């Protein structure tokens, strides 16, 4: 746990956020850049006093996640401070994918439209807004991909320093997409676990560094609620019957559920029943395995899957994912790397959306959930597609290519098309 | 010119579009999939009868380009037909870039948020909508990059066949990003000129193929007007004083101007003066050269620049670009490949936006226009950033990287940051 930084003169403004609460035993403590309860050692979560929130206020807000600022731990003037303006990504009616899967009514939430093309822009934007209130001046993270891009970009736009730690073995393309923002990108000779440990240590030692997914994690993770808010608003202020969410740490799934419940409690949507489904790659499926076995704890695994953005072997929110899925009557499944690639290709072929491996996991798992009778093909379903295929080209490399290579004449083209 | 396809039973519905008009002598002819006037051999352009269009109607529309459907050559129900739903991308206030450039008030229109991350999704969506009305069933193009992605994705989502022709020497990554949509991607043994010639021949021979940038080009190019509409709406229904637009064929620049003028004529914005500036890479700068020399025609060049998406040596709309720039009191400049890379890095470092080489051209040219006194640093300026850096990683390869590579301990990280 990081010592709280002394706020500057003005008092702390985190909007409707009032306290942190421990997830296990509900111990309450003041808002601070801390992430684990000293009482019960469980994760801390933001608690709110929302007051009255009306649809009209939200609809009159900006076309980004700050339209929901009255539901987030961010300052009241958050939209005026330079930020990457993530959110309000497309929710597309996916009739062709629905047909291919045998679903009646399907929507795809396409979060590749975010500034750095993954949902991480949402959580990082909230983390940065909260970190600024706490008096931090540097945005940091350990990462191998989407998070590194999002942190480096958000810091650049805000005029903050950034410190992004990556394993030195990372592919050149992934290094470039973070290095271009010109923050402090540090390659560490070690694996991702080494980098993660180093981040936790540095977070404890550097009072002005906000590690988005460490010391300001309770604020950061609230950013995922906006996926739930947007789905509901884009459906015309109502909840879908089923939603399929990929599981890495599990935070996103629990926060989408939290967002749905808040909307219901606040009277912004009718409290209709919904089922939350989780998707994992078999090569890193600790939560799926726990669900299958009926456990309420999650046994860590050593990840081995092409879905690297989901490859968290010891997911912090695993038990809470199980809670949500069990409470709502959903299910969790996992799919092979081969199925992941098929999922990527199916979504691209039917809806023109090119997703990264995590999206392939979501699509393929949906297919499996239908085949095993766990997902109701008659019920309206939403898939969360949270990252971009341009970032995981290696997953499809060697599997797809031109239909034909021909000499430059029209007959050759026609023949190629007829073959 | 392609023979018009016989429309199906219902009559042609292209919304407010009423005729095609030749750009040189104003010859009028019925709406059809034709792109060159048989009278004066100049390009054909869509003419409209808009009737009354109100801001409220637009604001009540969908959050994509179809909110402007009453200003486009598309059917009245266009938003109901599956499409990639491009547009409504972010217009971000760019104070840090403004400061770096010495500008008072600057906005960046970040079109990387489109479905396949370039403005081509806009023009392809309009082309597809019009092509459907004309009875075509296959969407096609010659391309080496953004257009190939956009056509393949749009066709996939619409459930259409696609035929995308590329030079067989294209880099593997660019092949993958089109091949994933599973259309007919045909690699042609030849250079881009060969591929282009082949496309024109095939467009003439295949009555059911809509080559977006050949036989349905007049409709396709109208899609770029939406960039102008969005900028004006996002500024609060007013025109900027200066706008900088990259020039490839020159179509985008002329259509942004057309969009601005239409908004003024329709009373949707006040008709305040604005200047349009053009940006080229020196390695392919025929329009900039013509402007510098005061010519009203453009001499073709052989392109040699890293800004490949702008590398059109014989730009079809070059003369019309000169007209717009001269009429509005703007200017055109060009920049070296070295400056292009600096432009990419400057935008990333100051605003967290990673653009492709074309965006680097726009930023670097803006800098040059300020330095040469052609762009007024006191006047409000908009830059069009029309494509994504993830697609041109080779441009920054070898120039950027980690700040340091260190062993996995905190001291080493701290030392690296102090050095």
From TrEMBL, chains A, B:
Any Gene Ontology biological process: isoleucine biosynthetic process
The keyword Lyase is annotated on this UniProt entry: yes
Catalytic activity, EC: 4.2.3.1
PANTHER family linked to this entry: L-THREONINE DEHYDRATASE CATABOLIC TDCB (PTHR48078:SF6), THREONINE DEHYDRATASE, MITOCHONDRIAL-RELATED (PTHR48078)
Keyword Oxidoreductase among record annotations: no
Organism in which the protein naturally occurs: Amycolatopsis bartoniae
Record-given protein name: Threonine synthase
Domain spans labelled Tryptophan synthase beta chain-like PALP: 86-387
Modification type N6-(pyridoxal phosphate)lysine: residues: 120
InterPro entries linked to this entry: Ser/Thr_Dehydratase (IPR050147), Thr_synthase-like (IPR004450), TrpB-like_PALP (IPR001926), TrpB-like_PALP_sf (IPR036052)
Stored CDD domains: Thr-synth_1 (cd01563)
Any matching Pfam family: PALP
Cofactor: pyridoxal 5'-phosphate
Family from the record: Belongs to the threonine synthase family.
Keywords from the UniProt entry: Lyase, Pyridoxal phosphate
GO molecular function, one term: L-serine ammonia-lyase activity
């Amino acid at each position: 746990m990081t010592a709280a930084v002394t706020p500057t003169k003005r008092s702390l403004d985190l909007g409707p956020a009032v306290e942190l609460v421990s997830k296990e035993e509900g111990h309450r403590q003041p808002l601070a850049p801390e992430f684990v309860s000293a009482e019960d050692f469980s994760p801390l979560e933001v608690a709110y006093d929302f007051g009255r929130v009306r649809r009209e206020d939200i609809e009159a807000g900006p076309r980004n996640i700050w339209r929901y600022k009255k539901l987030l731990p961010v300052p009241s003037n958050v939209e005026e401070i330079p930020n990457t303006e993530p959110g309000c990504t497309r929710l597309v009616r996916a009739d062709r994918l629905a047909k291919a899967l045998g679903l009646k009514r399907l929507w795809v939430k396409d979060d590749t439209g975010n500034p750095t093309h993954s949902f991480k822009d949402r959580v990082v934007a909230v983390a940065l807004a909260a970190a600024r209130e706490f008096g931090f001046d540097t945005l940091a993270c350990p990462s191998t991909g989407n998070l590194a891009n999002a942190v480096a970009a958000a810091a650049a736009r805000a005029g903050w320093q950034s410190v992004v730690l990556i394993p030195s073995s990372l592919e050149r393309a992934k290094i470039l997409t973070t290095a271009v923002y010109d923050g402090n990108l540090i390659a560490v000779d070690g694996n991702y676990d080494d980098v993660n440990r180093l981040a936790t240590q540095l977070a404890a030692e550097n009072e002005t560094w906000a590690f988005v997914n460490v010391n300001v994690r309770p604020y950061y993770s609230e950013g995922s609620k906006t996926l739930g808010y947007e789905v509901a608003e884009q459906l015309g202020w109502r909840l879908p019957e089923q939603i399929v969410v990929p599981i890495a740490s599990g935070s996103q799934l629990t926060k989408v559920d939290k967002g749905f419940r808040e909307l219901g409690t606040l009277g912004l949507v009718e409290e209709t029943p919904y089922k939350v489904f989780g998707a994992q790659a078999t090569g890193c499926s600790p939560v799926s395995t726990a669900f299958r076995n009926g456990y309420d704890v999650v046994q860590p695994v050593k990840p081995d899957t092409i879905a690297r953005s989901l490859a968290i072997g010891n997911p912090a929110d695993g038990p809470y994912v199980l809670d949500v899925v069990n409470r709502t009557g959903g299910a969790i499944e996992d799919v092979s790397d081969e199925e992941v690639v098929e999922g990527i290709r199916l979504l691209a072929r039917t809806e023109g959306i090119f997703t990264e491996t995590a999206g392939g996991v979501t699509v393929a798992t949906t297919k499996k959930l239908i085949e095993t009778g766990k997902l109701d093909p008659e019920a309206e379903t939403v898939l969360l597609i949270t990252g971009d295929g341009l970032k995981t080209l290696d997953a499809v490399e060697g599997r797809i290519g031109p239909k034909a290579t021909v000499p430059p004449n029209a007959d050759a083209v026609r023949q190629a098309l007829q073959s």
